[in-house]
Design goal:
The complex is a heterodimer of chains A (360) and B (222). Chain A is an alpha+beta fold. Chain A contains nine helices and seven strands, in the order ααααβαββαββααββα. In chain A, strand 4 (264-272) and strand 5 (275-282) form a beta hairpin. Chain B has eight helices and twelve strands. The chains are: A alpha+beta (360), B alpha/beta (222).
Chain lengths: 360, 222
């Protein structure tokens, strides 16, 4: 029950009780004035007087009082409603923007002030975490280069046994994986701190899709996976070519990696309403329903037991999500475990500029 | 050939120096931008390996200053991977080549060697390695008297390998030059394509031309 309703009910109860007391008092008074005459007619008169008082004057007064009370609580609580609405808009991205204060120094104004101070502190903490990750990934790059270089120099040694050589080569592979993780982390943290400004241009999305399907077909061949381009409508979007290609590669690569031998990947690009819809469906184990909301989290792996078998940096979907969102689009992941896993990307309609690209 | 290496990270600088020295280069090392300018002003180098991330004065500003002083020494920039803007800026500022970090040292050596030849090289339209030829205008590939059909991607890959014939091409360089990706896709795309290319141009022929350099990349040579 809302505070406003509760306050109004209490108010109504108090008024009713006071009306009853008043009624009882009035009845007492009248009956005392007439205490010598004990006839039934006199009693009746006292009762009539009292009920007249209660119903004709008391009740309207109560209704008026209730109406007034309801209005007063509404007015008093309006800033709270407003504050709730403003707080609802808060997320980790807009912590720096402060809530509007009324400035009249009342309790709610003070609450807003305290809330603003709290979000400022939170914003500071978030900022420090992001900067820490950025610095950490930057600091990791140099030692990786050094390790890579030294291993390579060591590999040049002709006296190495086959086993030693294999060991060094496996370390090179791991260093490359680490370098990819660091790259991905740097990219995402830079995106978080708003350090990446994507330049947009008109892009033929269908051409990028065809290109990545051609690569995907070849990547999928060794595992006997079939890649089909079911539909590819001519579509132009306003976007960043490099990042869109990265998004396509990440998604098709995932569809192949988390597939089953002799499985399939079906890709379609269609124009739906005011935008482009890209669907990538693949067979394979999929992700259990309860874990699906987490697939875009960084370093999330759907199936722990399976994860070590699949190479990857664990950031592919997070990066794809960032790319789609920075193009004002949406990305959705659904999976029926053991059957089909579908990633759907929707990108908004192209500007007229990009549409001209289709005409040429 | 005398090469100046400008790299603030002492360990990185040291293994670049060792690798270049092993290939017969004379190598000078400095760790700061102002030192680099001073060194380039007093001695003459055949090439400069310049890291972009330097303390105080960064590599790009050193490069601009050099070019303002009419110093035309070829420069190979070392940039952080994914920093496309830096790279474009570097080439605009007068760099001759760039290599993203972390790089493959064999490739760095090959690029430094190529720095010396830059400018005198013209771009032939028909490439030839042993009896393998690639016509870059008609996109026709031929070995002996056999012709091959190449997809667009296979053609670009073969063209890149043939233009750098004899030089090691790192996986990341191939990704950048053939696919135009400015990120490491973390797939075995390059290996799969090289395998397909090899089936076409090498399988039925001797000697083999397309060689794997384990842990590094590929090289096309006789």
């Amino acid at each position: 029950m809302k505070i406003r309703a509760r306050v109004t009910l209490w108010y109504a109860a108090i008024l009713t009780v006071s009306l009853l007391i008043m009624g009882a008092g009035t009845y007492q008074e009248i009956s005392e004035q007439l205490h010598h005459d004990h006839s039934a007619r006199v009693w009746q008169h006292a009762l009539d007087e009292t009920s007249e008082m209660v119903f004709d004057v008391g009740l309207p007064a109560i209704i008026l009082g209730l109406l007034g009370g309801w209005l007063i609580t509404r007015r008093a609580l309006a800033p709270v409603t407003e504050l709730t609405r403003a707080v609802e808009q808060k997320s980790d991205h807009n912590l720096r923007e402060h809530l509007q204060r009324s400035g009249n120094g009342d309790e709610l104004d003070r609450l807003t002030e305290v809330f603003n101070a709290m979000t400022s502190r939170l914003d500071g903490s978030f900022q420090r975490i992001r900067e820490f990750t950025l610095h950490a990934s930057h600091e990791l790059k140099t030692p990786l280069t050094v390790m890579r270089g030294e291993l390579e120099t060591a590999l040049g040694d002709e006296h190495l046994t086959v086993a030693q050589k294999e060991l060094l080569l496996s370390q090179v592979d791991e260093i490359e994986r680490l370098a990819r993780i660091v790259d991905g982390l740097t990219l995402l943290t830079k995106a978080d701190t708003g350090q990446i400004k994507l330049e947009f241009e008109p892009v033929r999305l269908d051409e990028l899709v065809r290109e990545s399907v051609a690569d995907a077909k070849i990547l999928a061949q060794p595992q006997g996976i079939k890649v089909n381009l079911a539909q590819c409508d001519e579509t132009a979007v306003s976007g960043n070519r490099d990042r869109l290609r990265q998004m396509l590669l990440n998604l098709t690569d995932n569809a192949i990696k988390y597939n089953q031998p002799d499985g399939t990947v079906a890709i379609s690009l269609s124009r739906v309403g005011a935008g482009a819809e890209l669907k990538i469906e693949n067979t394979g184990a999929g992700v259990p329903l309860e874990l699906q909301p987490r697939v875009f989290e960084r370093f999330f792996r759907g199936d722990r037991s399976h994860s070590s078998a699949v190479e990857g940096c664990g950031l592919g979907l997070s990066i794809a999500q960032w790319i789609v969102q920075s193009h004002n689009g949406s990305i959705q992941f659904t999976s029926r475990p053991g059957e089909l896993t579908t990633v759907t990307v929707r990108l908004p309609e192209a500007t007229t500029n990009a549409k001209e690209l289709l005409a040429t | 050939m005398r090469v100046l290496v400008v790299e603030d990270e002492k360990k990185t600088a040291s293994f670049i120096r060792k690798a270049l020295q092993a290939e017969g280069f004379a190598v000078d090392v400095c760790h700061r931008g102002d030192e680099a300018l001073a060194a380039a002003g007093t001695a003459s180098f055949d090439g400069i390996v310049l890291d972009i991330m330097l303390p105080e004065r960064d590599g790009l500003s050193v490069l601009r200053q050099l070019r303002e002083q009419q110093n035309r020494t070829p420069v190979l920039l070392l940039s952080a991977r994914g920093a496309v803007n830096e790279r474009v800026e570097g080439l605009n500022a007068g760099a001759d080549d760039y290599l993203p970090k972390p790089f493959v040292i064999a490739e760095l050596v090959a690029r430094v060697r190529a720095l010396g030849r830059r400018g005198s090289e013209s771009k032939p339209t028909v490439l030839r390695v042993a009896n393998l030829t690639l016509d870059t205008i008609s996109h026709r590939a031929q070995r002996g008297d056999k012709f091959f059909d190449l997809t667009a991607r296979e053609f670009r890959l073969l063209e890149f390998l043939m233009r750098s014939a004899g030089r090691i091409c790192g996986r990341m360089s191939i990704i950048e030059k053939v696919w135009d990706y400015d990120f490491d896709p973390g797939t075995n795309l390059v290996d799969v394509y090289v395998k397909r290319l090899r089936e076409k141009i090498d399988e039925e022929f001797e000697p083999k031309l397309l060689h794997t350099v384990r842990g590094v990349g590929y090289v096309l040579k006789e």
